[in-house]
Amino acid sequence: MPDDRSGARATLDTPFGPFTVVVDADGVVLAGGWTTAPDDEVLPLIHPRLRPAELVERPELGAVTAAVTAFHDGDPGPAATLPVRQYGGEFLQEVWARMREIPAGTSLSYSELATRAGRPLAPRGAGQACNRNAIGLFVPCHRVRRGDGSLGGFRWGLSVKEGLLAAEAAQAAARATAEEATTEGSVTEA
């Protein structure tokens, strides 16, 4: 049965184009993606059982908007911790949960993701979980690649996936360099 309460959505400008995010009445993220056609490309991703009866367009969604902004400014942490909800069986739920654990600046193959989800012989199932993922950014399927290292697919376009991975790798390298400098700077003479 669909959610008979109102949900909300907001569209934010990002370096990869407009990003629309949809939340339920409790502020739980239901869908999100980079598109200029959210009615056609984001809303249909929400399973009918989870889809709010009506959506209110808002300029911002509090912590959700802050997480989207932080993500695009180089801090993926908040997006990884906000509550999300998708409709799917046990394996899909497990794969989506494991995707949220992939550190920014790294990636896994479909086989590695399937193994982490407890089904090492199901890399195609892991790929299907990526394909069915309605919550781009919050469930970072862009961090999953083919076994040969190539990008594979991405609902929002390979140029967005490539840009996200490159930005995250650069941000991770900058954080590592800053941590290294801090560690070296904290060494004192005895």
Can you lay out the helices and strands and say which pair or pack?
Blueprint: E1 3-12, E2 19-23, E3 29-34, H1 38-41, E4 52-57, H2 63-72, H3 77-81, H4 90-99, E5 108-109, H5 110-116, H6 123-132, E6 144-145, H7 158-185
Parallel strand pairs: 1-4, 5-6
Antiparallel strand pairs: 1-2, 2-3
List keywords for this structure.
single chain; 190 residues; alpha/beta; four-stranded mixed sheet; two-stranded parallel sheet; 6 strands; 39% helix; 16% strand; globular
Write up this protein:
A 4-stranded mixed β-sheet has the order 3-2-1-4, with helices on one face. Strands 5-6 form a two-stranded parallel ribbon. The chain has helices at 38-41, 63-72, 77-81, 90-99, 110-116, 123-132, 158-185; strands at 3-12, 19-23, 29-34, 52-57, 108-109, 144-145. α4 (90-99) packs across α6 (123-132) and α5 (110-116) crosses α6. By secondary structure, the protein is α/β, with parallel strands linked by helices. β2 and β3 form a beta hairpin. It contains 7 helices and 6 strands. The model has no long low-confidence stretch (mean pLDDT 93).
Short characterization:
α4 packs across α6 (about 125-130) and α5 crosses α6. With about 190 residues, this protein is α/β, with parallel strands linked by helices.
Largest sheet: 4 strands, mixed
**What's the overall average pLDDT, rounded?**
93
Q: What fraction of residues sit in β-strands?
A: 15-25%
Please mark out the parts with pLDDT under 50 across 5 or more consecutive residues, or reply none.
Answer: none
Helix proportion range: 25-40%
Count of strand segments: 6
Largest sheet strand order? 3-2-1-4
What's the end-to-end separation, in Å? Answer: 68 Å
User: Radius of gyration from the CA trace?
Assistant: 18 Å
Q: What structural class should be given to the helix and strand makeup? A: alpha/beta
